[in-house]
Amino acid sequence: AGVGKSSLVHLLCQNQVLGNPSWTVGCSVDVRIHDYKEGTPEEKTYYIELWDVGGSVGSATSVKSTRAVFYNLLNGIILVHDLTNKKSSQNLYRWSLEALNRDVAPTGVLVTNGDYDREQFADNQIPLLVIGTKLDQIPETKRNEVLSRTAFLAEDFNAEEINLDCTNPRYLAAGSSNAVKLSRFFDKVIEKRYFLRDGNQVCHFS
To answer: What superfamily does domain 5-196 belong to in CATH?
Structure first.
């Protein structure tokens, strides 16, 4: 909760800063237009739904079972964490396992590195992207230390990493490294949804 998911989704879908973000209850949905394989002969426009799932933890299993409804038939996961909050970053391990339906713990989200087993993600076929928010709130003197620590997250999840300030669209400016990473992620999401890979063959279902 409070890491900036709604602000991020608004920026991704509307290319605008969300002026007055409020707490997300349940789930809200927005749509992004994405050009698959932009600039190639295979380019095609798709609509991508982004489901902004509320981050309330709660102590009852009913909270998790309610969230599980939003994880059905997902084709990609964006794991969002607050760069100014180390606990937020650690919690991504539990959130990811919950979304992938591999969280066997009865309740709670917090985990320590000692509880984490990288093998749980070895055979994952769902595209993952790790996004750190509130980059602007980290003092310059501590920025390298924080980004070095969070870089291990992306490595653990076998995912690319984007760090940004959701109040500044320039972090996702066209042609930037962040924009390229984001485009690659959405290409993978589309392939997960619409394509079946069999060896070197890619079969399209329409």
So the answer is: P-loop containing nucleotide triphosphate hydrolases (3.40.50.300)
